UniProtKB/TrEMBL annotation:
<feature type="domain" description="Nucleoside phosphorylase">
    <location>
        <begin position="9"/>
        <end position="254"/>
    </location>
</feature>
<dbReference type="GO" id="GO:0008782">
    <property type="term" value="F:adenosylhomocysteine nucleosidase activity"/>
</dbReference>
<keyword id="KW-0486">Methionine biosynthesis</keyword>
<dbReference type="GO" id="GO:0019509">
    <property type="term" value="P:L-methionine salvage from methylthioadenosine"/>
</dbReference>
<dbReference type="InterPro" id="IPR000845">
    <property type="entry name" value="Nucleoside_phosphorylase_d"/>
</dbReference>
<dbReference type="GO" id="GO:0009164">
    <property type="term" value="P:nucleoside catabolic process"/>
</dbReference>
<dbReference type="GO" id="GO:0005829">
    <property type="term" value="C:cytosol"/>
</dbReference>
<dbReference type="InterPro" id="IPR010049">
    <property type="entry name" value="MTA_SAH_Nsdase"/>
</dbReference>
<keyword id="KW-0028">Amino-acid biosynthesis</keyword>
<dbReference type="GO" id="GO:0008930">
    <property type="term" value="F:methylthioadenosine nucleosidase activity"/>
</dbReference>
<keyword id="KW-0378">Hydrolase</keyword>
<comment type="pathway">
    <text>Amino-acid biosynthesis; L-methionine biosynthesis via salvage pathway; S-methyl-5-thio-alpha-D-ribose 1-phosphate from S-methyl-5'-thioadenosine (hydrolase route): step 1/2.</text>
</comment>
<dbReference type="Pfam" id="PF01048">
    <property type="entry name" value="PNP_UDP_1"/>
</dbReference>
<protein>
    <recommendedName>
        <fullName>adenosylhomocysteine nucleosidase</fullName>
        <ecNumber>3.2.2.9</ecNumber>
    </recommendedName>
</protein>
<dbReference type="GO" id="GO:0019284">
    <property type="term" value="P:L-methionine salvage from S-adenosylmethionine"/>
</dbReference>
<dbReference type="InterPro" id="IPR035994">
    <property type="entry name" value="Nucleoside_phosphorylase_sf"/>
</dbReference>
Amino acid sequence: MTVSSISPLGILVPLAQEAEALFALMKQDGATHTQRIGGRDYHSGHLFGRSCVLTLSRVGKVAAATAAAGLIHAYKVGAILNVGVAGGAAATVKVGDIVVADAMLQHDLDARPIFPRYEVPLTGMSRFAADAAIGNSLSQAIEAFLAEDLLQLSAEIRERFALAAPRLHRGLIISGDQFVNGHAAVAALRDDIPDALAIEMESGAVAQICHDYGIPCGVLRTISDSADDNAHVDFPAFLATVASFYSHHILRRFLQRTDW
Ligand code: ADE
């Protein structure tokens, strides 16, 4: 699907630290306008030259669904990009890696025996596809970021979070209304959904809303923890230093591209 260059891009961010950092960048790019709808602020303006509407969805699937519906109804966005952090689900996905979704699934959705496990009732679907053009463009932006921008992050921060050689992964992201931080819980998810790359709490809901409205959807997640007993001790510091740096520079490269 080609994303309209006239409609704004909706940027949906679950956590305040990342949303505030992106809002600060929007303010550097000209005037912004903020509207409060359903207890949420929607900031419209430009980010790296592109018309955007940014909202802090807050955490969880219902919050994300509400925010996505607000972007679609109130702003007629041409696409939604969900930006945030995630836990690594696959053993190969390490802290500091980046996952771009090809598809999203809600791992806590279970209406058996009426519907198959994970299926969104009455849709016949459990996996919702991300937009391929957005995914390809994001991936190219990320490859350039990893090759050219990452070293701008101080050696101290890279060492502190063991960011040796971060990689890009592309595939399935799973969402549920739990922060997964135990070995048994992540092992069960790996057994049940072996191709899951990353776990978070929103994109499955955003994908479902985008599917219902026929709006392209992209998901970009920085891996903040391994979702097991070693889940990050300093999550706020990771968000403030690593995740915000990643989203700033990846979005700069992505929004300056014209191939989506
Ligand atoms: N977001 C970041 N890390 C997560 C985890 N371990 N589980 C769910 N959501 C997350």
